[in-house]
């Protein structure tokens, strides 16, 4: 498999959001001339509001509204001065109130995003290290990335994985001054908690461990004086904890607050904190409203408000407990998440609930993995019990209908979230289809396979026999691949869809930038399987081309396509794969919409290159039909080296040559960090040498036939297509003899000599191949991961190395 281009995160987010917008569930506008918090108007319809983050409903409290209006009357709509020079007259009272709430020194910030940007670079020294929980809020991750410019290492662990955290601590405990672990107190999607007490116990074991908690979703509705979940767990704020709360969301106003009990760190942040120094201060209305809210927090009333919310949360939990809805995390926070699995099911479910009169939020990538799409429901004091019960009843009614509309079932949803299904479901595939799953190519009809699948690459019937032999029975686990052959037929035994899939071990950074892979390879010197995962893929890492036959015109074509996707979901669970990859699709593939709806992300692969040799009988004729620019390239960069080299085609190599072939391929493989794969097994070369379909084009210096410069390993498939599958080269002599360009030329020359009409040149080095007349075509792969950890970890590592 050739190098896949670096994944453009923003383009992927744009495509996912565009899909959701077109489905009518994202980027909506509220209507109406007023807003109560209990209902919200969408598209002219009044809906019960289950999407707020104002859990206590204080944003509608008359005291906050009056204070905001009064502040505007007295001080205007804004106070246009940097707070570093002079603060709004109301600021002192606000700071005094918030300080009394926390009983600690505090810093007020414009919002939490700017607060993180100001605090993290100030608090973290150059000799520190940052470890991020991979579900910590984007604003924390984004602020942490700023420290890459100061060469501060940034690591990431899987969500709430204390074992992984301790491994990272051990890695840095003797080399770094402070080890900062950054996490949310309450996570905004699933409503689950940080294990605060367990983390503090870990800091007793490792004194360098410091914590940075973003507890904006834990604010106000829990804790003494409404200071949040984290402080409730801590009791007192220790000096190794920086705690962020909010003055917006549940607090009802605007802004954010940092609490810090370490005098030196506090002074450092307060004196100069980037955006804290240069950004505009809170508007008078926000300060006035925040003071009014702080006074409520400082009074016994806050506990009455918390209790009212608690009763609603408990009631919602009780209602849910009688259903079979997939609640992803059961807890006592006001945030609930009902999984739908596939995005298209989420769109359908949200639209159904809105038509029924209930507004809820869609949880979608990048906040959650694409295949973990779902509905985020938030409970507030605005919600009445009859409305809560009505929402649960509506969900219970419409959830199975949304699944049915999108050709899925509860079992698939529970599988996507690694939960045990409450009920077993029947497959959605029509009974008119016959699905065959075969364990070896020897069980497949050879003529049928070659008719539908034998036209490209090294995956005709004979090629797959070769691959099965080479990638089984090896000592290393990365060299043993599991093959499965899928044939979906109609009732007349006519194939509608045919493909093969493999399960194999991939390096998690295979698709990452080369410098990231170089850093990971340094760690793999001690642990060869560091950050590796089992991957289920169409085709295999050895093959390129259209790995899928599909008769889209067949009346059951859509059902066959859905059947394959459901089957691959089951295989992923059965084999314990961490990622599913569907490869080598064209840019305008009719599968695109379906695959997005099923939770796949699209990434662009390098262009696929082919050469059509029909009607051409000599190399001279071939060069003549090239463009004038490409002929100049031939005369300048290839032809001058003819007097220095000679080539020979070998179908049966001797033992010395085989060893050299292995060595030269190893040189290419270890340098190709842009596609960081495991090496091939040694026996591959012996099997190639014994297989009549393989031959090697060997390049040597003239007069030195035993000195090998490079070798192209070529396969001739059932359809008389010549496939230069991979290459080996001596890098010490690469430029002296223009080895790679010479091998490309000799490959075309060889295909003409044996009268083959086409060359499948694959995807690597397409620039060089196009200069020799190859035609390029865009190709795409679709990835579906169990979680976002690898994508986010690689994103964090970019620019560090």
Automatic annotation (TrEMBL):
Cofactor: pyridoxal 5'-phosphate
All copies of domain Aminotransferase class I/classII large, residue ranges: 54-386
Top-rank taxon, per record: Bacteria
Molecular functions (GO terms): transaminase activity
Keywords: Aminotransferase, Transferase
InterPro entries: Acyl_CoA_acyltransferase, Aminotransferase_I/II_large, AON_synthase_class-II, PyrdxlP-dep_Trfase, PyrdxlP-dep_Trfase_major, PyrdxlP-dep_Trfase_small
Record bears the keyword Transferase: yes
Ion transport listed as a keyword: no
Protein name stated in the entry: Aminotransferase class I/II-fold pyridoxal phosphate-dependent enzyme
Source organism (scientific name): Flagellimonas yonaguniensis
